[in-house]
Amino acid sequence: MTVDGTAQVAGRDAYKLVVKPKQSGSTVGAISIAVDHRTGMPLKFTLTPASGGAAVVDVGFTRVSFDKPSASTFDFTPPKGAKVTEDEAPEKGREHSGKPERGPKAEEDLGKGLDGLKMLGEGWNSVAVFDTGGEGGLPTGGTGGPAGDLGGFLGSLGDEVKGDFGTGTVFSTRLVNALITEDGKVYVGAVTKDALVKAADAGK
Q1: Tens-place pLDDT, residues 152-198
Q2: Residue 98: inside a domain, yes or no?
Q3: For a surface tag, which of 19, 33, 36, 57 has the fewest beta carbons within 10 Å of its beta carbon?
Q4: 124 and 194, same structural domain?
């Protein structure tokens, strides 16, 4: 992380902190965070792709104030005729944690949803791998019928690639790319097409 000068965000002076991937193969060019020079609070977040051009993500405050509100702001006068009750303090050990409760079934369902999900690589070059359990990849026009027509259309939106893993189709955006192989595996990550092919070869 480096400091890349200063900026004005929401009328306040801010330092620009920039993080760039050290490994090659990532589609992330840089992440810039503008932090308030007095409070250290993040005021703006910008993510630019390695391919250049406009930022993929660019969000920040347009107006911000750190003034402390007056205590009278929280004064409350019950309306005439209203009945006021006060709750007792919770028993020790039964305080609410503030976090949503998650039952065993919810955790079990979440675990099932992640079955088969694996991660390849590290850091910026991490690639998520999911096995759909089906073979043949995208349907092709040779299969006939609506499935073949749909597969032909989807295939026209991607690029066919080959490697030690076999054959597949890469669908690209400015940031996230996905590879669907002929044996039904899906590789997704903020990495280049070549990096996806290498990941598929390594995961063969």
Answers
A1: 555 567 888 998 888 899 999 999 999 998 888 899 999 999 999 99
A2: no
A3: 57
A4: yes
